[in-house]
Specification:
The protein is mostly helical and about 600 residues long. Helix content is about 75%, strand content about 5%. The protein has 24 helices and six strands. A hairpin with a 2-residue loop joins strand 4 and strand 5. Helix 2 runs antiparallel to helix 3 and helix 20 runs antiparallel to helix 22.
């Protein structure tokens, strides 16, 4: 071998070694790129998880802080209430206890003076203290002290004092004097701004506590008030709105768990879900108010017990000065109960807002007694009568509720597909496809399949190996070797060209195989996604049929619910055992006149 041939052979060997190392480096770089892409995806996932965990931590910390602040605030407010109004509890406990002591003849003149001095000193502004002094002095036949105490109690709170003595006198079976106090109370009232103690009137009606004469007086007065206020369209609309809010609150929770595919693919799902939840409210309304109206009411068998219950409600009412503190206290308790959720606590507090209003109109009192009797301290018996009294507003609210959800049913329910898929480090975006379920399911499936094929085919073709682009440099390199080296030795040039071409071709073949693998992987992933879309379309279509059936079933309860509400017009209270009570002949005229 000549020196030139040996030198060429050495060069060819070096080139061959370089090509082999280059091939190995290309493979290594390809593996590193795949590893980097995998690491990037993992990093993005971990960052998203970290973000979600951080937001959850922030929310939990905020809720915990809200609860802690509320607990602190509850302690401060409760201390303030106990400091400023704590003695009121003592007076309230004394009231009914003193009446029961009268029944047993345990009240003496010394007791009267002791009670009077203690209560007047402890509660210098509370109306109930002088009222109890008047009651005790009346029992001890101290007319002068009784009159002074009555005047003082009346000065502090004319409304509650009038009701208190009306109830006490009725409890002692002094019906005429009780009705005089009751008439005095009613004549002084403004039906558009009744005090919070007026709930006692509704309770007395339910219990029949004032006897036939008191019942007639109340019926006439309340009928006149109702006629007066019913002329105010805004006042009526406020009651209809409250009943509508009541029905709205009974709408059932989301049915997404029942219709997973429909909720996933239909843009109209929020409307469908709301309509079904509202239609299902009919059964809840029916069950709730049927139970209220069918609840058996057992009135007390003793007049004293019935009136004691009503007196308890009257004397336990907070004075207006306490209301701001009680309102704040209730809100902070709601914050604690709802785990720091301020919005939920505010909704709860708003629902009980009637508990802390100083005055309410007569129509609102009726609605509150029907919807939230605990807010004004009335019994289930009163709730039953109030629901019947609100029948007209209830019926209008129910009709509007039914009309609105029926009108909200979407005329066209659609399915929509269009999302992004990560395939071989590339992102495939499926443009939105929208189909209407008014079409045949077979046509929808065919359209969705064609949509997928139209956009996936170009995307998959992008993974094909670019032979023309990759082979051109190879051809030019081989040609250059043949021309340049062939000028010195064509056999050597041919050998070098074969080696370079073979190694380079091996590299190109490896790239082509990797491209085919990516292409096959992309085709497999997108084909599976397409089949899943078609499956979801079929499932959503079946669920829509099921949704329509369930809507018809829920909506079919509406006539029964409407019939129940209409029947409230004729609902009446049960007989009271006290309607026939007459004034006791043993009562002295002097005592009755003094108390009246």
């Amino acid at each position: 071998m000549s020196e030139v041939d040996y030198a060429l052979h050495q060069k060819v060997q070096q080139v061959s070694n370089l090509v082999v190392r280059l091939s190995e480096q290309v493979g290594s770089v390809s593996g590193q790129v795949s590893a980097v892409e995998a690491n990037q995806q993992q990093t993005r996932t971990e960052l998203q998880q970290l973000r979600d965990e951080f937001l959850a931590f922030v929310q939990t910390a905020q809720l915990t802080a809200n609860v802690q602040r509320a607990e602190t605030r509850v302690g401060v407010i409760q201390d303030q209430v106990d400091h400023e109004f704590g003695h009121h509890k003592t007076v309230r406990r004394t009231a009914v206890g003193m009446l029961q002591a009268f029944d047993l003849g345990l009240v003496s003149e010394d007791n009267v003076r002791a009670v009077g001095d203690q209560l007047m000193l402890q509660t210098p502004r509370y109306w109930l203290a002088p009222a109890l002094v008047a009651l005790a002095s009346w029992s001890a036949d101290d007319r002068s002290l009784c009159e002074k105490a009555v005047e003082e109690a009346f000065r502090r709170s004319p409304d509650r004092t009038s009701l208190f003595f009306a109830l006490v006198l009725r409890r002692q079976e002094r019906a005429q004097a009780a009705v005089r106090w009751l008439r005095h109370y009613l004549l002084a009232q403004d039906p558009a701004a009744l005090g919070r103690e007026f709930a006692v009137i509704l309770e007395s009606i339910a219990q029949g506590a004032f006897g036939p004469a008191g019942r007639e007086l109340l019926d006439d007065t309340l009928h006149g008030w109702r006629e007066q206020l019913m002329g105010d369209d805004q006042a009526q609309q406020r009651q209809i709105t409250r009943w509508r809010d009541e029905i709205d609150s009974l709408a059932q929770p989301s049915a997404s768990a029942e219709f997973l595919r429909l909720a996933q693919v239909s843009p109209q799902w929020p409307q469908l879900d709301a309509v079904l939840g509202r239609a299902r409210a009919h059964q809840v309304v029916l069950d709730k108010y049927r139970a209220i109206m069918d609840r058996e009411f057992q009135p007390s068998q003793r007049l004293e017990d019935a009136v004691d219950d009503i007196l308890d409600r009257l004397v336990s009412e907070y004075d207006n000065e306490e209301l701001p503190l009680r309102r704040d206290l209730a809100f902070n308790h709601a914050v604690i109960d709802h785990g720091g959720d301020l919005d939920a606590a505010r909704r709860t507090a708003d629902a009980d807002s009637a508990s802390y209003e100083e005055t309410l109109d007569y129509l609102t009192v009726q609605t509150t007694a029907a919807l939230n009797p605990a807010a004004i301290g009335t019994s289930p018996a009163t709730q039953r009568l109030s629901v019947a009294a609100c029948q007209e507003w209830f019926l209008q609210a129910h009709a509007g509720f039914t009309r609105d959800y029926r009108a909200a049913v979407p005329p066209d329910v659609q399915a929509q597909f269009g999302t992004a898929y990560t395939v071989a480090a590339q992102t495939f975006h499926l443009p939105p496809w929208v189909g209407s379920f008014t079409q045949q399911l077979a046509d929808l499936e065919q359209s969705l399949t064609a949509h997928w094929d139209h956009y996936t085919r170009p995307f998959i073709d992008r993974f094909a190996y670019p032979w023309a682009k990759k082979a051109t440099p190879l051809g030019l390199t081989v040609l250059g070797i043949l021309v340049v080296i062939g000028m010195f030795s064509f056999p050597a040039a041919l050998v070098i060209a074969i080696l370079v071409g073979g190694v380079w071709g091996l590299i190109l073949n490896n790239g082509a195989q990797a491209a085919r693998r990516h292409q096959d992987n992309a085709r497999r992933i997108l084909e599976a996604a397409k089949q899943e879309s078609v499956h979801n379309l079929r499932a959503a279509s079946a669920e829509l049929t099921d949704w329509n059936a369930k809507l018809r079933t829920a909506d079919a309860v509406e006539p029964q619910c409407r019939e129940l509400i209409q029947s409230l017009r004729t609902a009446t209270q049960g007989a009271s055992p006290f309607e026939g009570r007459t004034v006791s002949g043993s009562a002295t005229t002097a005592q009755e006149d003094s108390a009246s």
